[in-house]
Amino acid sequence: MLLHHQGTPGVTGSVMWDSGIVLGKFLEHSVDSGMLVLQGKKIVELGSGCGLVGCIAALLGGEVILTDLPDRLRLLRKNIETNMKQFCLRGSVTATELIWGDDADPELVKPMPDYVLGSDVVYSEGAVEELLETLGQLCGPNTTIFLAGELRNDAILEYFLEAAMKNFRIGRVDQNLWHPDYCSNRVVLYVLVKK
């Protein structure tokens, strides 16, 4: 898969982090092993960046909406166009803007997503409140959230988990359920459902 990204190092949304690869390969492995069915499921990805995770979900049959900040959409749409036209897609993939904390577009919440995906979305204490507000908007009684992150700043992660526990049940996906070739002790994978 050819991923275009901006050349500026250290810019979020323009670099492929390990946690995104781990999450994408986890989805692939879970579908292959029959643990997850993504065919025909509505999937929203947060902070899609290059779009790898969402594109994998679409290849696995998901009806995927990639989301990111307005200035990231051109890159995201270019990656969709470049990569997805060469595949016989089992699902579908589109991109739309989403600013965390703002009201989500009706297309994102009507109907509610079956799955919400995010990799490296917990990166600053200031963004936690907006992220949780958006997760709350996107999460119905039958929505499952998968969040992957690199263990870089445990204080921010702990802050997020503590705040998330008010409205969500949180579990940690055991590494023996991950793709066997894509495991990393620096990455953690959480599953959240609304209480």
Indicate the CATH class of the domain at 23-115 and 136-149 and 164-180.
Alpha Beta
CATH 4th-level superfamily of the domain at 23-115 and 136-149 and 164-180: Vaccinia Virus protein VP39
Query: What is the overall pLDDT average?
Result: 89
Low-pLDDT segments, ≥5 res: 1-17
- Count the beta strands: 7
InterPro entries: Methyltransf_16, SAM-dependent_MTases_sf
Q: What would you say this structure looks like, in words?
A:
The protein has about 200 residues and is an alpha/beta fold. It has a domain at about 25-115 and about 135-150 and about 165-180: Rossmann fold. About 35% of the residues lie in helices and about 20% in strands. The chain has helices at about 20-30, 50-60, 75-85, 105-110, 125-140, 155-165, and strands spanning about 40-45, 65-70, 90-95, 115-120, 145-150, 170, 185-195. It has a seven-stranded mixed sheet, sandwiched between helices. Strand 2 (about 65-70), helix 3 and strand 3 (about 90-95) form a beta-alpha-beta unit. Helix 5 runs parallel beside helix 6. The model is unreliable at about 1-15 (pLDDT under 50). InterPro entries: Methyltransf_16 (IPR019410), SAM-dependent_MTases_sf (IPR029063).
